[in-house]
Specification:
17 helices, alpha+beta, Beta-Lactamase
């Protein structure tokens, strides 16, 4: 505010002084003009006085002309107000006029008597002219010469002083204007200097506060100003408060997290690590900082761990790494690393979970699957074979018994199929097999799936249409055929007798869409949302045929997601349902 007021005050003072100088110069010019007027008036009086003396001494001039001239001169000499107005500012001219008035006083008296005589009669005028003293007229003539000389001297002095006075006024104005401009420039530069210094000081203060914010140190009070820099300073201070609170929360989370949180450099050396490492790895924090991760894993895990981190740094910048670590209590534990790489800081940020117990549970699941495969599927298969043999033999069996045997055989087949679906799904979710991806013809896959379910379709008296269209996809042939087979089997379960199942292949964006449409039961919107969820089929209404879907579609959804695609259902009331999967195209486009 002060930096703004200083130039304003200076400009006001400069204008005020300049105005005073203009007024003073105007006054001097007025005095000079008044002096010129005085000279002109003195010369006029001098001329009139000479004319009056000449009139008085000339006997050939008529009385009327003398009377008129004498009246004008008398009026001029008697007009003292005019003299006072002109002479109050010029003492030298006033002294000259006072002297002239004193000398001309007698002349004024004679002129007055002459005016009266001329107005009375010629005899009186003649008597007045005869009474004039020639010596007085001579003395007046001499005084006129002296006064004329003084008037000329006064005029000469004025002529000489006028240019000097004008030059002095011009120089005064020039000096004052130049000085004012230079002083104004100096003040401007000085204010600019202080203004720049102040701005730099405040900006440096903001930079220092930014560094304090970055280092989580306390900040000085904010700037109390009202300009943009003060606003920026307050924003920095507010950000410091918010970041401080966030850092406190982050520190609390970092220290209280059950998982190990750590940061590794590009060479896999530990830069920072949370206190949870003491509980999970049995190493104190000070022993881990600066230590290489490769020195903590088993010998068989060193090279896979290094390659896994290299792929993350050179690829998508994030990923999952599984390692076998040698802990401080001499135990070996399986650790699952969620890793994120930042190019800017050249650092791996990791969240590490102990999945040793999870791995044990997975092994137990695999053991259960192997037992289920042997202890459940094998007896069911044996029973089914025995019942089939009984049905094939032409034994004298009552008709009711035969019907019961056929029903038992169908139920055993359904039960075996359900066990097989469960085992297949558990293998997909537990073991997560790697896919053998290669270019495949979607039409060939659908044809192979049709052949796999041809016998079942014949028994259900359902025919296939298609596949219509074709596309080149990138997929695991065995898994994709399994998914299409499950779609066809699911469609057979819902199809009516003597109906058709239509297989359609089309492309959309970068995906191949395989659709399987049946003409049976049309799913409701709620059923379509739940049908591919293994844990939601109990929510279907009582008597709904959707419960017959089993785990087929759950397996289809899992296989599709493994390929990077999606699974969906389109349903139309009274026209059946269409189940579809999307699989990535070869090269991202249709071939």
């Amino acid at each position: 505010m002060i930096l703004v007021l200083i130039p304003v005050i200076f400009e006001i003072a400069f204008v005020a002084i300049l105005s005073y100088m203009v007024v003073d110069a105007t006054h001097e010019l007025q005095n000079l003009q008044r002096s010129k007027t005085i000279l002109i008036y003195l010369q006029k009086v001098q001329t009139s006085s000479i004319q009056s003396i000449w009139l008085l001494s000339d006997r050939h001039v008529s009385y009327e002309a003398k009377a008129k001239e004498l009246a004008d001169l008398f009026k001029m000499l008697r007009d003292t107000r005019k003299w006072d107005d002109l002479l109050h500012s010029d003492p030298e001219a006033k002294a000259l006029v006072d002297d002239m008035q004193m000398k001309y006083r007698a002349l004024a008296g004679n002129i007055e008597r002459g005016q009266k005589a001329l107005r009375t009669s010629k005899a009186d005028a003649t008597a007045w002219r005869e009474s004039l003293d020639n010596n007085m007229l001579m003395e007046l003539s001499l005084d006129h010469r002296e006064h004329a000389k003084k008037i000329v001297d006064l005029a000469t002095r004025m002529l000489k002083s006028e240019p000097e006075q004008l030059k002095r006024l011009a120089e005064s104005f020039s000096i004052f204007l130049c000085g004012g401009i230079l002083f104004s420039i100096a003040i401007s530069f000085l204010l600019l200097y202080f203004f720049t210094i102040d701005i730099l000081r405040r900006l440096n203060s903001i930079a220092d506060k930014s560094r304090l914010v970055a280092s989580a140190q306390p900040l000085p009070p904010p700037d109390s100003g009202t300009d943009e820099i003060a606003e920026l300073d307050r924003i920095i201070c507010d950000a410091g408060v918010v970041l401080g609170e966030a850092q406190m929360k982050e520190h609390a989370i970092f220290e209280s997290a059950s998982e190990v949180i750590c940061a590794l450099d590009r060479r896999l050396k530990i830069e920072t690590v949370s206190e949870a490492s003491q509980k999970l790895w049995f190493y104190p924090v000070d022993q881990l900082q600066g230590r290489s991760l490769l020195s903590l894993v088993t010998a068989n895990s060193i090279e896979p761990t290094r390659l896994a981190f290299d792929r993350i740094a050179e690829g998508k910048n994030e990923g999952i790494v599984e390692t076998m670590m040698r802990c401080g209590d001499a135990s070996f534990r399986t650790m699952l690393w969620s890793v994120r790489w930042t190019d800017e800081k050249q650092t791996f940020y990791c969240v590490v979970q102990d999945v040793t117990e999870s791995k044990k549970i997975e092994k137990l699941k695999q053991h259960f699957l192997s037992m289920a495969s042997h202890d459940m599927r094998s007896p069911l298969t044996a029973i089914s074979m025995n019942i089939s043999m009984l049905n094939l033999r032409n034994l004298p069996t009552p008709e009711g018994v035969k019907q019961e045997l056929h029903q038992v055989e169908e139920k055993l087949e359904n039960l075996i199929g359900l066990v097989n679906e469960l085992l297949d799904l558990e293998k997909l979710e537990v073991s997560q097999p790697e896919l053998t991806l290669r270019p495949l013809s979607a039409s060939d896959v659908c044809e192979e799936a049709k052949e796999a379910v041809a016998d079942r379709a014949g028994k259900a008296q359902v025919k296939f249409r298609g596949p219509r269209g074709d596309a080149l996809v990138v997929a695991d042939e065995k898994r994709l055929v399994q998914a299409v087979v499950n779609l066809l089997v699911n469609a057979l379960k819902f199809s009516k007798t003597d109906s058709f199942i239509t297989i359609t292949i089309k492309t959309e964006d970068r995906f191949c869409i395989i659709e399987v449409a049946h003409q049976g039961y049309a799913l409701s919107s709620q059923e379509a949302k739940l049908i591919s969820d293994r844990f939601s089929q109990s929510q279907f209404p009582s008597g709904s045929p959707v419960k017959r879907a089993g785990l087929l579609l759950v397996t289809v959804r899992r296989i599709t997601e493994m390929h990077g695609g999606t699974f969906g259902v389109n349903t139309t009331s009274g026209e059946g349902s269409t189940f579809w999967i999307s699989i990535p195209l070869q090269g991202g486009k249709q071939e």
